[in-house]
Design goal:
Nucleoside Triphosphate Pyrophosphohydrolase, 7-stranded mixed sheet, 281 residues, binds zinc ion
Length: 281
């Protein structure tokens, strides 16, 4: 998270101004130049086309509270503003805006999908101290969900194992990924997913880094892993092709702003030469 960002709850009642982030699904309302929105007073906010919508607190940035708001279909877009996909912000490396908006989007999703208690069905309200929701009927407390998702680049010397998903809109090939299941370590998930998806065995995976991925609430945990045996055998319907690619002859791959792209570029760099072809999306 950003250095000036504070995660927890704090007394924001005295703040004169606040940052408001308005969403429509995974789109953020922002200026055409993708700068941070100007913080505004509550009065100015309430006069805006979105001022009557529920605003969910998700932390403070530079000492001012941050709120996330879900757009209603009939609200007009203010002059000079436009809807921009969160993924686009990531690709553009608008780090501050992406980081804040990503957290806001996740907290918004959490609030909108936990309005009722899963235990007794009564309405929930914002928790007094924690970033959580509490049931008014039975006191059950729920916290925002973060789903750990492993992502791994399997390599064999100068070759990278990349797969094409049926979900990709173009000819892009990427690393393998999957959710960690209950009761499983992340390393076990890496071994299992690689075996399930492409039928090969790997050496113990080596941790590379992690990245919040607010679509809607994953934490991507990246690994490198060396091939240890087996032939490629596609085992899941979601994957339409998987093969070994020499690092000098890579297909279209994800941008370096996403964990998959970082893993690929890191390996290519280590193989002694710069990049494959990047997917602009
Ligand atoms: Zn309850």
């Amino acid at each position: 998270m950003l250095p000036d960002f504070e995660m927890g709850m704090r007394d924001v009642s005295a703040a004169e101004r606040a940052w408001y982030f308005v969403f429509r699904g995974n789109d953020l309302l922002c200026a055409a130049d993708r700068s941070l929105p100007e913080p505004m007073t509550r009065e100015v906010w309430q006069e805006s086309p979105f001022g009557n919508l529920p605003a969910f607190y998700f932390g403070s940035y530079r000492g001012l509270p941050c709120y996330a708001v879900q757009h209603e279909a009939d609200a007009a877009v203010p002059a000079g503003m436009e809807w921009t996909g969160l993924r686009r912000l990531l690709v553009d490396e608008s780090a501050t805006l992406y980081s804040l908006a990503g957290r806001g989007r996740q907290i918004l999703e959490f609030n909108l999908t936990h309005r009722y208690c899963g235990k007794c069905g009564q309405p929930t309200v914002a928790h007094a101290r924690d970033l959580a929701r509490e049931c008014q009927g039975c006191g059950h407390v729920v916290y925002p969900r973060v789903s750990p998702c492993m992502i791994v680049l399997v390599t064999r010397g100068e070759e990278l194992l990349l797969a094409r998903s049926a979900r990709f809109p173009n000819a892009m090939y990427s690393t393998l990924a999957g959710f960690v299941e209950p009761g499983e370590t992340i390393e076990q998930a890496v071994h299992r997913e690689v075996l399930e998806e492409v039928g090969v065995r790997i050496a113990p995976p080596v941790y590379f880094g992690s990245q919040p991925w607010p679509f809607p609430h994953q934490l991507m945990i990246g690994f490198h892993a060396e091939y240890a045996g087996g032939e490629i055998r596609i085992g899941e319907e979601e994957i339409v092709d998987a093969r070994w690619w020499h690092y000098r002859e890579l297909p279209l791959t994800p941008p370096g702003s996403a964990m998959s792209g970082m893993l690929i570029q890191d390996y290519v760099r280590r193989c002694g030469e710069g990049g494959g072809q990047e997917n602009p999306e």
